[in-house]
Amino acid sequence: MKEKEIICGFSKLTKDQKLDYISNHFENPADFVEELKSFYHDDENKQKIIDEFSENTVSNFFFPYGISPNFVIDDKVYHVPMVIEESSVIAAASKAAKFWSDKGGFHTEIISTTKIGQVHFIWNGNVEKLKTLMPDLKDRLIESTQDITANMQKRGGGIIDIELVDKNADIPGYYQIKATFETVDSMGANFINSCLEEFAIELKAFFLKSPYFNDEERDCEVIMSILSNYTPDCVVKVWAECEIDKLGKIDEELTGEQFASKFEKAVQIAQVDTYRAATHNKGIFNGIDAVALATGNDFRAIEACGHAYASRTGKYTSLTDVKIENGKFRYTLTIPLALGTVGGLTGLHPLAKKSLELLGNPNAKELMRITASVGLANNFGAIKSLVTKGIQKGHMKMHLLNILNQFDATEIEKEKAKAHFEEEKVSYSAVDVFIKSLREPIVNKKIVYAGK
Ligand code: MEV
């Protein structure tokens, strides 16, 4: 086995050479290579597409691709594709979708769809003068990006606004060109970043050439030009509502009113307690990330934004809210979702394309509605379990197959275990004992029985 060392030029090696190099860090290099190659796609063209998504690719890392059926969203039925490795998430979403399907389903409203990009720069000059010159600068910035924005404008998007933000109070000389974009059906990161980099060039030229600045004011240091993943104005609201007595069927021990009240308390706790809020919101992102992944969207951007949005009042809080009024229970999620249905991986990943097809080739707004509904469904499922039978019972049942796989259980053993744990509490040690009991040599059992 090779000692770990710094390697130069790893990216220049072929895929086989990379694999070969890395394999030498394993006790059994041939075994490592065989294992990684066993995950290659049979179709070389498809494998090549996947290889080229990122860099230094040596294999594929499989995640399950599942379907959460029966989502009624704004009176339309969707069977939603989800990519997630965690057991019970898809089951919980499906169960919640079915529960709400005969109660009007999920209702949605797109609140806004714009995104933000910033050029951060340092400039030491007369800010009042700069403010009066802003209309001229704005025209120049827009003009400088005309080649980039032409296509987007044809699709109904483009640059919506450009403003100067004075951040001197935070860092001496710090300003931003803060631009608002509409990117229609694309997530728009490349479009926004390309515009911003043009803005930066034009901005520097403006300070250099404009007759209104004196020599001390000509120097503008552009620190960086980049979109913001915080999109508090690209927001969708989704809610589900029903008469409180319809909630009575959820749990044998609670009336509809008791369930609603306990549920409301659970949400209030997530609204006031950061420790709980993070877990509560994580449950929402279980669903949201899974749909984002299945449709080729950037789940890291969505998560970063969601958590920032959850802190927008200065205190991190729940993204969902519950209202109990006039005998009605209404559960709402309000969340920013910068999603795309064209561009990026959405059209490149063969399964992302199929996911979008399954959803009826939605536009970005429709995908926001669908994704937010799944987030609400997962959160509803989690809170419902937490305030009734607890999370572990259902979760561990779903997790049973994973534990059995850790024991290399055969199909027959799995069937026996599933039947056994129908009534028993699932835990790693309980499965261990059960599997051992199945695998005990029959002769020993006979001795035990004989001794009885
Ligand atoms: C587990 O992945 C997610 C939950 O912890 C969410 C929650 O507690 O609300 C069940």
Can you characterise this structure?
The structure is a single chain. With 452 residues, this protein is α+β, with helices and mostly antiparallel strands. The protein has 4 domains: 1-62, no CATH class; 65-112 and 233-389, 3-hydroxy-3-methylglutaryl-coenzyme A Reductase, Chain A, domain 2; 115-227, Alpha-Beta Plaits (2-Layer Sandwich); 396-451, no CATH class. The protein contains 16 helices and 10 strands. The protein has a 4-stranded antiparallel beta sheet with strand order 3-8-10-9. A hairpin with a 2-residue loop joins strand 9 and strand 10. Helix 1 crosses helix 2, helix 4 packs across helix 12 (364-387) and helix 5 crosses helix 7. The chain is globular, with a radius of gyration of 28 Å. The chain binds (R)-mevalonate (MEV). (R)-mevalonate (MEV) binds next to helix 9 and helix 12.
Structural class: alpha+beta
Q: Proportion of β residues?
A: 15-25%
User: What is the helical fraction, as a range of percent?
Assistant: 40-55%
CATH topology description of the largest domain: 3-hydroxy-3-methylglutaryl-coenzyme A Reductase, Chain A, domain 2
The helix count comes to 16
User: Biggest sheet: strands side by side, in what order?
Assistant: 3-8-10-9
Bound molecules: (R)-mevalonate
Overall tally of domains:
4
* Amino-to-carboxy terminus distance: 54 Å
| Uncertain ranges | 447-452
Query: So what's the CATH class of the largest domain?
Result: Alpha Beta
User: What is the 3D shape?
Assistant: globular
Q: Give the SSE string.
A: HHHEEHEEHHEEHEEHHHEEHHHHHH
Largest sheet: 4 strands, antiparallel
Count of distinct strands: 10
